[in-house]
Amino acid sequence: MVKPRVVIFSKFFWPEGGGAELATYLIVRDILSKYFDVVVVSGTEKPKTDVLKCCRCIYWPVLKTRYKPVEWLKLLANTKTARKLIEGVDMVYIPSHALLPLAIIAKLIKPDVKVVLHLHNYQPLTYTSVILAGREPDLATDIVVEYGEHDSLLRALASGLGHYINKINTLSLHFADKVICVSRRQYEILVDHIPKIRSKAVVIYNPPPPVPDTSKKLSDYPTILFSGGGSFIKGFYIAVKAISKIATKHSCRIYVTYGRGVSIRHSALLR
Fold first, then answer.
1. Could you report the per-residue pLDDT of 26-70, keeping only the tens digit for each?
2. Does 179 share its domain with 71?
3. Are 141 and 160 in contact (CB under 8 A)?
4. pTM for this one?
5. Under a CB-based contact definition with an 8 Å cutoff, are residues 12 and 42 in contact?
6. Buried b (16+ CB within 10 A) or exposed e, 213-235
């Protein structure tokens, strides 16, 4: 029996990326490959080797573009390549928030192809893909988030333009046949702001990754490890304040990882 064909467009593929890419890798390996003939198109040159046994991977350099508006323009400029990838498949699956406009391109190329968007954040509502508690997903939200993440007023103000360009992502949802949300709360927020997707939106939780044995012998010296990264949105500065209070009252070792924006995060730790 011939399997239906699906092409997956993802900006990165595991082991590159983060939680969304890990979830995509697990979905491809453990679910989609069992029922579909799978082709993964990504900006990752060397995907995890075990997935090569169950699907075909294509490296597309266009997807490595850094800034979203530039990437969207490049996608439009490379519709010939997209056409070759889409014309022969039954379904297009897009789990990457940076590639949502491909839903529009896919439907224009092949109107009867099924398009599934898998949302891991709030990209259809804000340019930064973030919603802050107690705030509407508006222009001010994008500016606050951009400034908090990069400590650049110029970049924060520029994100204001991105807020209006982001309407293309909202439009993309109307071209999808199914919209997958990863939590009930995400579903509620998206449907509240974009009511027309209610009939096509569903909640499917991400598959849990394999958990290694983390048992270890505890030392006599208290140790704190914060490996949440340096994201303003994910609470880096709150963690720093909490760790600082602990360190003033107790003798302990502290390890912090913070990746992007090293100079900003490092100065916060020194303070």
1. 999 999 999 999 999 999 999 999 999 999 999 999 998 888 888
2. yes
3. no
4. 0.88
5. yes
6. eeeeeeeeeeeeebeebbbbeee
